[in-house]
């Protein structure tokens, strides 16, 4: 096996156990209650540690809903008297004390990913059953998952540390004299650790790190879920990163960085992969209601309540039924929903993304079991949280090709989505598909319908603003408010720095 290059940075590690003020900000153990000296001895240990990398993210899906949707134009508060910290997201006035700004779970995944990458070579050296291909796949899996974590951070927060190496026992850093120093982690105070954190000077540094990591894994991950030379079962397949996911993720990051030709080329792989499809309109809801994932999905954070009583807070956040544990924190914005969905009622996404019961309009994706009114059992919210779906690749392909002035291709991929969702194709003679501004608006409208309430809308509006050269985010988000508040929010969001959530790490806690 060729030696895997390890990343080094100027600073970086955190004490996970002895700093009460930091709580459990970083958990460097591969999974709970493991004895480190007895672990990482064979590929079974690597596999167990791989699954453990995803676990912290699964606990935070309600935060992803807040970060990516509550702030945007399609979601508002459900309660007449909103919970204050939830409402801060809805009104775009988030305080640093807000517990839902806690991104420590993301850093738990980052810490576990860093540990996994630095242990692969050790396991490869002592386990003769672990071949070169699988060792590289374990490494690439951790690297891609870490890149996805930083992708969340760079688009969401105004400030965060960049941690690319695991130093659970020791911290290595450059002192004031320029000397490389290594000290035992448990000998450092919390203030010393915070002082050693590497905060990137510009976000471009993080963007390039994410992109380079995504490119690095492309040839290392299994193409069709062949882990340890065995195909994963359906209920595990889409809960783990893969080569098609890497291509889709790299394509999206490439669009953010202006690499449109590369983005278009990357989308070809997942689109042509037989393990992924847009499916049919009748099967579209299954990706949210089925007990196992479908080909619609590319990467999800899943739950199996019947196996281990795993649950998430999406039912609590979106259900209006108190007897089911619903607190109705968030609901769809009526005027936005009407504008985005209602003019084409045959769209399957219209009948399943949201529902109206009397005076209550609810986000249905996470509480519904069919297109009518059947709901999940009380206190058993186990709907999967989709990070990427097959439709991502198609709509990213449409966007990249539009930016390359390949109007016919962009038009074709929009129609692919429409027909798969029960809509008629647009006819070329009816649509001015060479109008780039109109086509871009159409693509982001399709994304709004396809990914409604899946934590993408705020980031889509950020990207729409970047690509159009206009502040679409301020204009569109402010449209959900009334009167003086509409103008206040619009004015605030005219300043791009206000698009990011402020955070004070010293105030993190576990109340959420």
UniProtKB/TrEMBL annotation:
Residues 1-22 form the signal peptide. Residues 24-225 form the SusD-like N-terminal domain. It is found in: Cell outer membrane. The keyword Signal applies. Keywords: Cell outer membrane, Membrane, Signal. Coiled coil: none annotated. Residues 363-502 form the RagB/SusD domain. It comes from the Bacteria. Belongs to the SusD family. This is RagB/SusD family nutrient uptake outer membrane protein.
């Amino acid at each position: 096996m060729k030696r895997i290059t390890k990343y080094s940075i100027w600073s970086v590690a955190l004490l996970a156990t002895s700093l009460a003020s930091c709580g459990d900000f970083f958990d460097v153990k591969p999974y709970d209650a493991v004895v480190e000296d007895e672990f990482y001895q064979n590929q079974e240990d690597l596999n167990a540690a791989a699954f453990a990398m995803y676990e912290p993210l699964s606990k935070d899906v309600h935060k992803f809903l807040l970060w990516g949707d509550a702030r945007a134009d399609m979601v508002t508060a459900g309660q007449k008297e909103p919970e204050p910290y939830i409402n801060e997201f809805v009104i775009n006035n988030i305080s640093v004390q807000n517990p839902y700004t806690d991104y420590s779970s993301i850093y738990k995944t980052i810490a576990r990913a860093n540990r996994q990458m630095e242990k692969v070579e050790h396991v490869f050296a002592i386990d003769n059953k672990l071949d070169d291909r699988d060792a590289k796949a374990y490494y690439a899996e951790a690297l891609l998952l870490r890149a996805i974590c930083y992708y969340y951070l760079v688009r969401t927060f105004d400030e965060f540390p960049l941690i690319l190496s695991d130093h659970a026992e020791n911290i290595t850093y450059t002192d004031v004299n320029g000397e490389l120093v290594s000290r035992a982690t448990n000998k450092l105070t919390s203030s010393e650790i915070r002082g050693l954190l590497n905060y990137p000077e510009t976000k471009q540094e993080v963007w390039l790190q994410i992109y380079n990591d995504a490119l690095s894994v492309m040839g290392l991950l299994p193409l069709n879920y062949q882990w340890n030379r065995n195909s994963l079962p359906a209920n595990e397949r889409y809960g783990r990163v893969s080569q098609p996911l890497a291509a889709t993720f790299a394509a999206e990051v490439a669009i953010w960085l202006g690499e449109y030709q590369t983005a278009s080329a990357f989308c070809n792989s997942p689109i042509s992969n037989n393990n992924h499809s847009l499916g049919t309109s009748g099967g579209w809801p299954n990706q949210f209601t089925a007990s196992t994932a479908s080909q619609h999905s590319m990467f999800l954070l899943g739950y199996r309540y019947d196996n281990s009583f795993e649950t998430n807070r999406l039912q609590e956040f979106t259900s209006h039924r108190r007897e089911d544990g619903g607190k109705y924190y968030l609901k769809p914005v009526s005027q936005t929903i009407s504008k985005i969905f209602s003019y084409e009622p045959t769209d399957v996404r219209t009948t399943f993304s949201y529902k109206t019961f009397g005076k209550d309009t609810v986000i249905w994706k996470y509480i519904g079991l069919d297109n009518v009114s059947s709901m999940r059992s009380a206190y058993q919210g186990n709907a999967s949280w989709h990070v990427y779906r097959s439709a991502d690749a198609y709509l990213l392909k449409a966007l990249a090709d539009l930016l390359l002035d390949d109007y016919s291709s962009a038009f074709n991929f929009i129609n692919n989505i429409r027909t798969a969702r029960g809509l008629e194709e647009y006819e070329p003679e009816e649509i001015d598909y060479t109008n780039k501004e109109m086509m871009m608006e159409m693509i982001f409208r399709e994304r709004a319908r396809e990914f409604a309430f899946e934590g993408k809308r705020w980031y889509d509006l950020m990207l729409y603003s970047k690509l159009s050269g206009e502040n679409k985010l301020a204009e569109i988000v402010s449209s959900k408010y009334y009167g003086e508040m509409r103008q206040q929010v619009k004015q605030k969001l005219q300043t791009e720095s206000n698009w990011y959530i402020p955070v004070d790490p010293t105030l993190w806690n576990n109340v959420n």
